[in-house]
């Protein structure tokens, strides 16, 4: 298997942490996003949404979208399970992974892309060009502030998003919190449960190795 990624950016980082937790690694090819290599015809055949990461299987099949790749790897390499160990955990992991991605990660992406000159005409990832919407900058900040308060309350009395069990929901959340610092948004001191959780997960070897 082969991995197409670009070091340091958030979604490949989510996958790299997941791989480290599983004890997996694959040969990597860099797709230089700064040079627009994600739009090259030969890469588009592997990644219809022109984004990284992409996992190319030995039979030539390609899977893009971080969650889809993680799902595939969980099925192929079940140990240690990162999507839940029983029906309840599977449901709770899916729930918190979705909340963290939708309310957290996408809010940061809105703020980041709509607030930067670099993304002129490229406000959304993918094969089509979209103009920036300046109002999404302020809305992004509000959403991130609310997201921090919401997950701070959820994490009260818990070590991880699903109590007693580190999962992909924690991976999505830690990458989101770190990604937000690119926009100048940090966790406020009042969110002590969130700050404690962030410190705890940041000590994990998988996260230290991919920081
Ligand atoms: N929904 C995709 C998003 C992947 C994504 O946003 N990748 C970024 C890097 S973090 C990318 O490839 N950006 C290409 C671009 O900006 O054109 C996933 O979950 O993997």
Automatic annotation (TrEMBL):
Pfam annotation, one family: GST_N
Domain GST C-terminal span(s) in chain numbering: 86-211
GST N-terminal domain ranges (all copies): 1-81
InterPro entries, alphabetized: Glutathione-S-Trfase_C-like, Glutathione-S-Trfase_C_sf, Glutathione_S-Trfase, Glutathione_S-Trfase_N, GST_C, Gtt2-like_N, Thioredoxin-like_sf
Protein name according to UniProt: Glutathione S-transferase family protein
Organism: Porticoccus litoralis
Organism ancestry: Bacteria, Pseudomonadati, Pseudomonadota, Gammaproteobacteria, Cellvibrionales
